[in-house]
Every structure is written in structure tokens, then in C-alpha cells.
Amino acid sequence: MTQPGHIPSPEDTFPNEYSTTVFLKNVVKAENVVIGDYTYYDSTNAPEQFEENNILFNYPFFGEKLIVGKFCQIAHGTKFLMGAANHRLDTATTYPFNVMGGIWRETSTPHIDELPHKGDTVVGNDVWLGRDCLIMPGVKIGDGAIVAAASVVTKDVAPYTVAGGNPARFLKRRFDEELTALLLAFRWWDLPPEEITTLLPVLCSPDLTLLKDTLRSRLARKEEQ
Fold this sequence. Notes:
24% of the residues lie in helices and 19% in strands. It has 225 residues and is of the alpha/beta class. The protein has a seven-stranded mixed β-sheet with strand order 1-3-6-9-12-14-15, with no helix packed on it. A four-stranded parallel β-sheet has the order 2-5-8-11, with no helix packed on it. A four-stranded parallel β-sheet has the order 4-7-10-13. α4 crosses α6.
């Protein structure tokens, strides 16, 4: 647990005193799942068991990955459905006869060979997934996006937009085009924790004019270097 006056470490499993918040990279061990620093799952129901309870039908040999960026906020009950959960759609039946064994296994297509592949599921940085969301296989969610509670995400979500519903649809943009472009160019989540700490008064301020001015200045300074 982080001590007062110290910057939280991404290597802590439980970073605070509430014991409901888990930095996921420290508890998810599947070889096909990549989770960035400071991304957390918050739940009163065994948050450290996220891999077992919230990444469903995850079989690494299927060849598809789950990639989640840094500083994402994943609320209680949110689940990722991996590609191996699919059934074939291009035949008369979707029933997995091969899995049931016996002569059905001998006379049907191997189960893994018949499944559609949706590709990797990718969540960007600083994404907020609300309570009880379901993220379907192959979806791409951009940096800074928000997905409303109880949404089923079947299609890509653009950066810095809000999506919600079943199936989730575009609801609104979080910021104007200029600020969105500045944030995507600046990528604050890639800065060292010490530098992020100095920027918190700006990053956490509702003063978007100040935020724009700061990002413009920092980006200009970076270009000069």
C-alpha cells in the first residue's frame, strides 16, 4: 500500500487502504494478456481474481490477445469475452458437435478450426469502463474513451468519445477536436510518474483552457528539443 507523500508504485497489487482496487498487471498472468501500468479493477468481490472471473473463454492457443493500456479504470463486473467463446456462423447449425466427443468428434470439423477469428481486443490508455460492461472479441477502444455502465461493446469506440447501450453506440465527444488532438499527441500516460505528478493540478482541473495552453506549451517545448 502506498504511504502518504509517496508516488503510488505500479508494482503494488493493492495500492490503497480500501483493498478493493487492484493494479491488474500484477494479478493477470495469462501469456496473451498485456496490461499497462496503473490500470486498475475495482470490486468488493475478489478483485485479485480478475483473470479467472472477468476474462472469459481465454485460451492462449487460440491466438488472440487482450491488450489494455495504462491508467485505465475498470469498474466492478466488467468482463472481456475472448474469441474462443464464438461459434461458427456460416453453416446450418452453430452447435459445437466436435466438442461433445464420440462419433460426433470423428465426423465433424475440429472445433477450433471452425471458429471465426475477430483479432485482438485492444483498450487504449486512460479508458473508463463502467460497471458491468461486456467487451466483445476484437473490439478496439481508443485512448480517453468512456463506456457507460452495463454496455455491450460490439464495435470500435473512437478516442475521447462516450459510448453506451446494448449494443454500445456513440453518444458524444468528450472534448473539441483541438483538445482531443493535443491529448493524443501529448500522451501524458507515457510520462514518468514524477512528471505526471507535477501535472496533476492541470490534468485534474475542469479548466480546459488551462489544459490546452499547458499541452501546447509542452508539445512546443518537446519539438524544440
